Amino acid sequence: MNYLFLLLAILTEIVATTSLKLSDGFTRLVPSIVVVIGYAVSFYLLSLALRGLPLGTAYAIWSGLGTALTVVVGIILWQESISPLRIIGILTIIAGVVLLKLADSPATQTMSQ
């Protein structure tokens, strides 16, 4: 359940960040409201996920995957540039998240003891 909360927190963070772009500097009402509500919901869901997940890992997954997926949204919606370096950057973020998750797995903790 904790990972479900974390996934939902990531998705609402992406919606809020996308709406931040659409708010045009908070000059458009509806996207501005979505930003505030989206971030509030995202932080609430993250707080629920933290009940059962380590802080560092949960935050790294939330911010890392949120960042990587927001880059993808920018490429799709606003035709932001895509280059080999951007792809490597996204893959590096995802690899870091995977490594953090593996570091918290019971098998890894058993090996380190």
UniProtKB/TrEMBL annotation:
Pfam families: Multi_Drug_Res. GO terms for cellular component: plasma membrane. GO terms for molecular function: transmembrane transporter activity. It is a multi-pass membrane protein. The chain crosses the membrane at residues 26-46, 58-78, 84-103. Its main location: membrane. InterPro entries: EmrE-like (IPR037185), Small_drug/metabolite_transptr (IPR000390), Small_multidrug_res (IPR045324). Keywords: Cell membrane, Membrane, Transmembrane, Transmembrane helix, Transport. It is found in: Cell membrane. Belongs to the drug/metabolite transporter (DMT) superfamily. Small multidrug resistance (SMR) (TC 2.A.7.1) family. This is QacE family quaternary ammonium compound efflux SMR transporter. It comes from Brevibacillus fluminis.
